Amino acid sequence: MADEKRIDKVLHVWVRLIRAQDSVVRKVEAAVKAKGLPPIAWYDVLLELSREGGRKLRPVELEKELLVAQYNLSRLLDRMEAAGLIERVACPGDGRGQMIQATSEGRAMQKRIWPAYRDAIAEHVAPDLSEKDLEQLAKHLGAIGGYLRPGGCGN
Question: At what angle do helices 40-50 and 2-34 cross, to 10 degrees?
């Protein structure tokens, strides 16, 4: 019986977590779009490519780092390449492999998107929580996800 109560509580948390995530992402996406900027997924790609002074990543490496579902990644990269924000280059030592890197236009777009993205996050992610509550929320979400990137946004 105790297990059933726990499972019910976990399911309740699951539903609330998914609904909160969906609601916040839609609001943040709409706020960024209202400023005439591309989707936030584009920013996430550009952010990953900008780490460590700008790096080249294989698509599979990007997939592991991003908040984008795998099945969307190929189309996302195609659109970003068509917009001139990224380019695909041959993978050294692997003639068939590709690496993705940001272009100068991509780096400039990342800088343009960030203020709108930052402000939308601040407005829509727990705007009424105290700093202490935010720290606790981050701790609990980290425990749920089992994922904390040292020195990164996952902390």
Answer: 90
